[in-house]
Amino acid sequence: MKPNTPGLSVAASNLEPRSRARGGAATDTAARGGEAGLKTQQGLSPEARDGAALLGRKILVIVENLPVPFDRRVWQESLALVAAGAQVSVICPKGKGYEADEETIEGVHIYRHDLPAEGDSPAGYLSEYAAALFHEMRLAWRAYFQRGFDVIHGCNPPDLIFLVALPFKLLGKKYLFDHHDINPELFEAKFNKRGFFWRLLVLFERLTFASADIVISTNESYRKIAIERGGKHPDKVFVVRSGPDLRRVRIMPVDPKWKNGRTFLVGFVGVIGDQEGIDLLLASAQRIVFDLGRDDVQFVLVGDGPSRKRMQEKSDAMGLSDCVTFLGRVPDDELFSVLSTADVCVNPDRVNPMNNLSTMNKILEYMAMKKPIVQFDVDEGRVSAGEASLYAKPNDPIDFADKILALLADPLLRATAGEIGRRRIESELSWERQTTKLTAAYTALFAG
Fold first, then answer.
1. Phi-psi region of 295 (alpha: psi -120 to 50; beta: other; left: phi over 0)
2. CA angle 23-29-99, nearest 5°?
3. Helix residue ranges, H only, 295-378
């Protein structure tokens, strides 16, 4: 199981995202990649830019979801740590376009390993995770002898990287847990049950928190979990959100081609998996187009994922093929063009314990692009977007459709919501605002 994590880039590679089938609520965009940011260390705080906060420290980052630098959150963190003076190594899987066993990019030394096909069952996930742990342990020892490290920075899912860290903790090294996904809730949302594997995930989560010297949470809900469920002292838990890098966001001229001859465009960007509620979005499109006779609305979905083929077939079977476009992964220029052209952007994630407590990066990205949003009424969605969004009744595609139409009917409301969202990103939620929190977490780690 993989989310908070990745960027606005939906790289045009053939890499299949190991995404919300395995988690990644807070990183759904991470699964789409991040070729931008490979050229410059953007969005860094003054404290990080001065190159002194972590001078001489050596950090090993381990992530299983995606290759680096394709994983946007992990890549931004790595660059920020390098800019703060640290020596940074990363262990990650290989992927299309990121197949070198070992290379250094912008001062970040990357070790990559093969990974079996993504599991589609609890047993399949265990097999995948076992292979990942083997390679992570092997490469951690290589990194230890080749470059050394003071701390392992483990990015879940899965909640198993503490097993790699344990022998090094015996050698005096520290473990920082970067909490991207709440895996017990993810399992329950995906399989609609608990049982043995759910209890196993609860155990792994508890052991992960117990092993961590410091926890980085992607939002306040996750911080509360770390404190209440994980037993961490509040002083040991820091919130570092996966904010968009405003130095890379490009608002472009409207391009009518995306509207397919229609008046309005409804945009979606993200992973297309079982938890993303694309079926609910299609039901909303069906109501708008057929039940209400609105032939002036085009829907464009950007992104890929394990359910894309099935959702596209479902769309065709519903008679929506002309007004619903599945673009797949696209280069940044096309992504920014679609979002710039969109009149409304949507997040149809179902209301469940996983989504209710998780920050969806697509919401922050829409806000960065000054777009009004429609989403179901989830707690963290409201925390992020506030008045930049309208909120439909939980899992109700009819109300979701009505909220889309309400925005399409009111240009002033759309513009106002877009401005509110952008200002919130600029003032609080951008990545530049997060780097000071990241270095503060590391300062506390090394002071403890």
1. alpha
2. 85
3. 308-317, 332-341, 353-357, 361-368
365-389 burial, b if ≥16 CB within 10 A, otherwise e? Answer: bbbbbbbbbbbbbbebbeebbeebb
State the residue for tokens 């009744």.
393
- Assign residue 186 a region: left if phi > 0, alpha if psi is -120 to 50, beta otherwise? alpha
In whole numbers, what is the pLDDT of the chain averaged over residues? Answer: 88
Report domain extents, the chain. 25-43+51-243+431-447, 256-429
**Pick from 273, 275, 330, 274: which is nearest to 300 by CA?**
330
Map residue 58 onto helix, strand or coil: strand
Classified by CATH at the fold level, domain 256-429 comes out as: Rossmann fold (3.40.50)
Q: Which fold has domain 25-43+51-243+431-447?
A: Rossmann fold (3.40.50)
Condensed to tens digits (0 to 9), the pLDDT of residues 25-65 reads 443 433 333 333 333 344 455 544 556 789 999 999 999 98
In this predicted structure, what is the pLDDT of residue 118? 64
With H, G, I as helix, E, B as strand and everything else as coil, classify residue 117.
coil
- Distance between CA 275 and CA 112 in Å, rounded? 28
The span from the CA of 385 to the CA of 340, in Å, is: 18
Which of 289, 334, 324, 326 is closest to 305 using CA atoms?
A: 326
More confident position, 46 or 124: 124
pLDDT class of 120 with cuts at 50, 70, 90: low
User: What is the number of H-type helices and E-type strands within the chain?
Assistant: 16, 14
pLDDT in tens, 316-364: 999 999 999 999 989 889 999 999 999 999 999 999 999 999 999 999 9
Q: Which of 358, 368, 367 is nearest to 376 (CA)?
A: 358
Cα(353)–Cα(374) distance, rounded to whole angstroms? Answer: 19
* Average pLDDT rounded to a whole number, residues 81-103: 95
Neighbours of 40 (CB within 10 A): 12
Estimate the crossing angle of helix 162-169 against helix 122-146, to 10 degrees.
30
The whole-angstrom separation of Cα 373 and Cα 424 is 14
Note whether 25-43+51-243+431-447 and 256-429 share their fold: yes
pTM (2 d.p.): 0.85
Looking at the predicted structure, is the pLDDT value of residue 431 above 70? yes
